[in-house]
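Two proteins, back to back. First:
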Amino acid sequence: MNPKTEVTLRARAGATPSAEPASGEGAREMVLPVTGMTCANCASTVERTLRKTPGVDDASVNFASERATVRFDPRVVSVEGLAAAVERAGYGLVPVDGSAGTAEAEEAEAIARAGEISCQQRQFRIGVAFAGPLFVLSMARDFGVLGMWAHAPWVNWLMFALATPVQFYVGWDYYVGSWKALRNRAANMDLLIALGSSVAYVYSIVIAALLTGGSTAAGEHVYFETAALIITLIKLGKLLEVRAKGETGSAIRELMDLSPATARRVEGEAEVDVPLDEVAVGDVLVVRPGDRVPVDGVVIDGWSAVDESMLTGESLPVEKGQGDPVVGGTVNRTGSFRMRATHVGSDTALANVVRMVQRAQGSKAPIQRLADRVAAVFVPIVIAVATLTFLVWWLVAGASLTDSVIRLVAVLVIACPCALGLATPTAVMAGTGRAARRGVLFRNSEALELSRALGVVVLDKTGTITRGEPAVFDVVSDGDDAALLRLAASAERRSEHPLAMAIIEEARARGLALSEPAGFEAVPGRGVRANVNGHTILVGTRALVAAELDGGSDDSLAAWIDRAEAIEREARTPVWVARDGLVLGLIGVADAVKEGSAEAVQELRAAGLRVIMLTGDNERVARSIAAQVGIDEVRAEVLPGDKAAVVEALQLESGRPVAMVGDGINDAPALARADVGIAIGTGTDVAMETADVVLMRGDLRSVPEALALSRRTMKTIEQNLFWAFFYNAALIPVAAGALYSLTFLPTMLRALHPILAALAMAFSSVSVVANSLRLRHIDL
C-alpha cells in the first residue's frame, strides 16, 4: 500500500468508534450498534429518537447492519446519553467507548449480538418443543387418526396448555415490540404478528369455552396450533435472517481477522511475544517469513516481499527494504525484517479501512427512500385490509365467522415489511464488502448508486493515467548507448532533479557501473556540470550545452537538433549529453503510462462511457499520451483552478452524472464538484479526503471494477425491491381470498391457511438477504 494512502486512511477515521469532526465545532461522528430492532419501522423509530435528542446534528439507522451513524456534540450529549434516549424508546444502543480501538468495539458489539441471538435460539427451541406436539395432535384429530376421544372438550384445553407458553414466552418479543411501536406512535411487523397470532389464540379460547358449555355457536374447531406455529415459524425465519445478515457483513470480520493476536517485540537482546494491544509507537518488532505484519511501521533492517492483496486487491507481493512502509495485517512472504511501529491500535490503516467500510455499509442509498416511505404506512394499510377482509367475508359474502377470522389472520401474518426494509441495505453491505476485498472503498452508498448512472468519466493525466514519475524512453548516440547512459548517470549522481533520478534509475536497471563525479555543479533550470573520470560532462538542456560549447554558438549542435525535435514530437523531453566540448547524444525522458491504463480506458468505453483526459500539460504532450491509451477527447492546458469548471460544464453538456478520477492536490476541487469523485490510492491526502471512492491501488483498472460492482449492486437492489413489492402485492390478495371463486385452483391457494402464510412470510426476508449474498462471489 502506498504510504500516502495509509496516511489518508488514518486521517479519515470515522466510524466504530470515530472522532471525525462533524459540521459543528467540536462535533464528532460515531457508528454505534443498535439492538432490539425487528423491522425497518423500528430503525425509523430509533432514527427519529436520536435526531430529536439535544446535541445531535444528524442520525441515520441501518436496519440490515443494525448500526446507527450519529453526528453529535459531545459537549451537549454523551454516548451514554444517546444510549439512554434509545432505551427510553424501547431499544438498545451499545455504548462503545470512543477511546476504544476497532477490535474492542467489535468485541463489545459481538457480545451484545451473541446474547440476543442466544435468547432467540432458546425461544425457538421452546417453540418447537410445544408447537410440534400441538401441531401433530391437531392434525391427527382432524384426520380421524386418534378416535372420538380426541374431540372431547378437555383436549381443547390441552391444546390451550401447549399453545400458551408459545404465545406468551416465545412470542413475548412481538408483544413488547408492538408496545414500543405504539408508544412511539408507529406500527411495525411485531404488531402484525402479535395481532394475527392473538386473534387466532383468543378466538380459540372462546370456541373452547363455548364447546365446554355445550355450544357450537362459534364453530367446533380451535386454532391453537395456528397461533403457535405462526410464532414459531416466524421465529425460525428471523433466526435464518439474522444468520444471513451476518454473512452480508462478513467483509468487516475478515478485515478484523487480518490483525495477529501477538507481536514479536525486541527488548534488549531478546525477542519477546507480546499481546498486540501492548505494542506502542516506537517499538522495534521482528517479522519473520509467514508472519502477519502486526501494526503499521517502517522497515529499519532486512528485506522481504509482502503480500498486500487483502487490503489492496493487488495479487503480486511488494518488495520492502530499509525505509519502506509496511501496513498491519499484510503477510510477510519471504525474508525476515525489523520494523519500527509508527501507528498502533485504532490509528492503523487497517482499522481505518474497517471504519470506512462500516460507514459505507451503514449509510442509506437514495433508492432506499421509496422503501422507507412505503414501510412507514405499510402496517396501518395491512391492518385496514385485514379488517376489511374480515368484514366483507362475514357481512357481505356470508362466510362463517370462523372462515372470516382465518382470512383476517392470514392477511395479518403474510404481510412482510421486513423484506422491504432489507432489500437495499443488505445489498449495499454485501456490495461494499466485496469492493473492499478488491481494494475499492466507497465512502457512502450514494456514491455506489450514482456510479451506476455515470455518463462521463474524466481522467486526470499525471499520476492517474501516467505514473507521475519520469522514465527514460530513448538513448540516442553515434556510438555506444550504454557508455552514453553511464556517463550521464554518473554526472547526475548528486542531483535530486526528477529527470536526473530517471536517468540514474535506468542506468542501474541496465546494470551499469557508475563513477563518482567530481566538481559537481547544478545549473538552475538547465542541468548539471561535473567531472567524470577526468572528463567534463554536461547533462541538461540544449541551452546549457549551447552556452558551454563553441562560445555559445549553436553551429556544433546542428547535427543533433533534428534528432532532438523527433524526440519532442513523441511528447518526450530530450536531455543533451556532452563530453569535453563534443555532443555525445540525447536521452529522451517522459512520464510513463501506467500499466493497465489502456486496458482500463478500453473497458470504460466498452461500458458505453464517454472518457475524457484532463491535464495542464500542453496539447502535443496530452495528445500523445491520450493516443497511447485510446482516449479521443482531450482537454489540455487547463489551469488547476479551472478543472472544476470543466467538470461542471461537462455535467451541463451531458445531462448525466460525471465522475472525476484524480490523485493530486489540484484535482481536489474537481473531485468535489464531480457527481462521483474517485481518488487513486497513490495520490495526495487532500485528493482522497475529497473523494467519494478511494482506490487503494494506483491501478486505473480499479475504476471499471468499481463501476461494474456498482452496476451489479444496484441490479441486486432492484431485484430485491421487485421481489419485496411483488410478494406483498400478490400474496396479500391471495390471503384475503381473492382466488376463492377460481374452483380449479387448489384449496390451499383459494383459502390460504395462516400457517402457510406464516411460512411464506418467514422466508420472504431470507430470500432477499440470500439474493444479496450472491454479491460476495461475483467476478469483476
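And the second protein:
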Amino acid sequence: MEVAEVVPEFADVFSFDAFNEMQRTALPAVLEHEDNVVISAPTGSGKTALAELAITKTIADGGTALFIAPMRALTNEKESEWERIEQLGYSVYVVTGERDLNPRRAERADVLVMTPEKVDSATRKHETPRYAFVTDVDVVVIDEVHLLDSRSRGSVLEVVVARLRRLVDPRFVALSATMQNIEEVAAWLDAPEEMTFDFGPRYRPVDLHAGVETYTHGDNAFADKYRRLYTALDLAEPHLDEDGQALVFVSSRQDTVKAAEKARDEIAQRDIPVGDRGDYDFHSRTQVLDNDTLRQSVLDGVAFHHAGLSKNDKDHVEEWFREGRIDLLFSTSTLAWGVNLPARCVVIRDTKLHDPLEGEVDMSPLDILQMLGRAGRPGYDDVGYGWVIADRVEADKYRQLLRDGKEIESRLADNLPEHVNAEIALGTITGLEDVLDWLETTFYFQRANYAPGEDAYDDVRERVRRVLDDLLERGFVETEGELGLSATLMGQLASRYYLRLQTAERFRGLVDTEPAAEAILGAVAQGEEFDSVSARGDERDAIEAVLGRDTGSLDQGARKILAILEASMGGELPPELRSDAWVIKQNALRLLAAVRAFFDRFDRPAGANLCRRIEARVETGVPPEAVGLTAISGIGAGRGQRLSQAGICRPGAVVDAGVSGLVDAGLGEEVASNVLGQAKQLPRIRIDWGAFPESVQAGENDMQEVRLSTGGSGARLGIRVTVNGVEMTRSVRYVADAETVPVGVFGADDEELTYAIEVTFPDLPLRPHRETRTVSVR
C-alpha cells in the first residue's frame, strides 16, 4: 500500500514510500472513522506514522490537532520533524513556557505540540483570551499513553484527558509501545473494540532477547556504579567485537559523561576495536561539536547523550550513531521516548535514579520496557539483546517484569484531593452531581470497574465523597444553594499554583502574621511539595555552613531547601548543594509566587512586595540593597553586582547616573542605554505633605491631603498610613500618575504623633518607600 495512493496530498510528510503490515491494519480505523483509537505496537514498528495520519486527516478537514508528547525534549524534536508539514502550507506550533507563548500563533496553528503539563496549564486558563486556543482542538494524539503509570506525572495526563473530554470532547488517538491492559485504556477512552489494536511481539522489526544480569550491592554507591558499568561493558563487548553497537542507559546527565569517560579507558585496556581517531575527515567533522568532552570522546567511538546537550550536539551524536561512527553510547531515558535510535545491544545500567524532590526512586517499570524496546537495528540485526543490571535481591522482580509485562495503573488516587479542588476551581465541576460525572471520565474510575471484587466501584465513589467533604471542611470549597459548589479564594490559589493542600493552608496562615523573610522562607522550605527531599551525608556540612543557626523544627530536608534558597540569595551556592539546586529553586520560586499571591489577594501588599523581593534575590543573587535593580529588564546577578558596587542600588539612581555613569560602572554603552530606558519606566515615588501641620491643639481634628505621585509611571501600589505605629488606613490601588491620600491629624493624649506613609509595590521587587512627619500636641 503506497503512501502516495492513501494520502497523496501529504505523501511528503512521511519518510517512507509504503506502509508496513502493522500500519496497513490500523490505517482504516484512523482515516475512515471518527471513533477514538487505541494502538499498542512494539518500539520501532512504525506507530508514529499512525499519529501523523490522524493529524493529516484532521488538518485536511480544516481542523486542529493537538499532539501530547511525553516530555519537552520530544516536543522540540517534533517541531523539527514536522517541518515537512509546514512545507505544505500548514502551521506547527510547539507550546513551551508561559513567557514564550505567542497566543496568535497558537490560535492559528493547525498542529499544536505540548507536554501534559503544558496542556494542564493551558486548560486551567482556557477562559482567558491567551489560552482560548486549547478549546479549539478536534483531535488529540497521545504519544506513549503509558505515561499514565508515571508516579510523578501520570495523574497530570489523566486529568488533562478528563478535562478535555468535558471541555471539548475531541477525538482521541492513543499510542503506546507498552500497554498490557489495553482493553482498560480503550474502555476509558470509549474506543470501540474494532478501533483497539494490540500488535504483539510478532510486529517487532527485530526479535528481542531480554534478560537480567545481577551484581552484588555494596556499601559504597560510587563503587556500585563502577561494578554495574563493568558488567555493562562485559555484556556489550561481544557485540562491539562484531561491529555491533551498544546503547547503555544510566540515571543522570552527569553519569552519562562519567560513564563514557571511564568506558573509554576500559575499552582501551581491553583492546576493543572501536573509534575513528585515524580518520582525518571524521576528526574534522567533530569540530562542529559544542561540548569539548564530547568532541574528544566520539573520536574513540564512545559518546553520551542527554537533554542538557545543545541541539547541535544531540543531532550529530544521533547522526553518527546511525552511521556507525559511534559504537558505544551512554544516555539518559530521554533517548528511549522518541528518538528512533536502535542498537544491537541495550543495557540498563541503573534501575534507580536520584530525584531532587523525592530522593532515590526506582525507575518506572514501563520506562525500563521502553528502553529495552530499542534493542535491535532493523535491516542490520536478526536479534536485539536487552539487559537489565540489577541487585541480586531485586533480580526476580525484573525477571517477572520482562516475562509478564506491566499493567498501566492510575496514579490519580495519590493526589485526588488536589485534582478535585482544581476542577471545582476551574468550573468543570459546579455541583455535587458533577463530581461523580467527572469521576467517570477518569482512568482511576475505569480501573475500579476492572478491579476484582464487587466493592471497588463503590469504594472509589465513596472515596471521592470523603474528599469533597474534606475540601468543604478545610475551607477550599463552599456550597452554593442546595447542590452547587465553588472554590474559595484559598481553593482558587491552591489550584492556580498547583499547591498541595497542606501547603496552601500553611500559606494562608502566613498571611495573618507580620511579613518576615525568615517566616516566608521557612514556610516554603516546609512545603509538602518537598516532603521527600533528603540531605545526603556530603551535603550536611555545607547546609550547616550556610545556615549557621538553629532552625527550630525544620528537618534535614527542609534545612537543605532553606540553605539552597539563602545561599542563592547571597549569590554563593556551595558546590555540595549544586546538583539538586536547579530543580529545588524552580519549585521554590513557584511556591514563593504562590505566597506572594496569598498576601496580595488577602489584601497584604507589604507581604506581597517582600515575597517579590525574595524571589528576585533567589533568582539573581543580588544583595538586598540592590534588589530593586532587578525590576529593570536585563539586570541579573552580574550587572546588579557591578552597579551596586558602584553605589547604584536603585532604579532612581540608574536614572540619575545616566548612560555615562552606567558605562563607568561597567556596562556597555548599548546595554546602558537600554537599562536607562527601562529604569525611566518604573515608578519613582514622591510624597508632597503640603501644609501638613507641625502641631495640633489637644482635642482638635484636622483632615489633611497628602499628594503621592509616581513620576508619570503608573503602578499598583499598597498605601498604608500609620500614627505612632498604629494603622489608620490601608489600601491597594493603581496610581497612574498622582493620587491624594487623606490623613486625619487629631489632638490625642500623646505629646507627639509620628505619622508615616509607606508605599509598597505588590508586583515589583522595589524596596518600600516610607516617609514620616512628626506633629506635637499642644
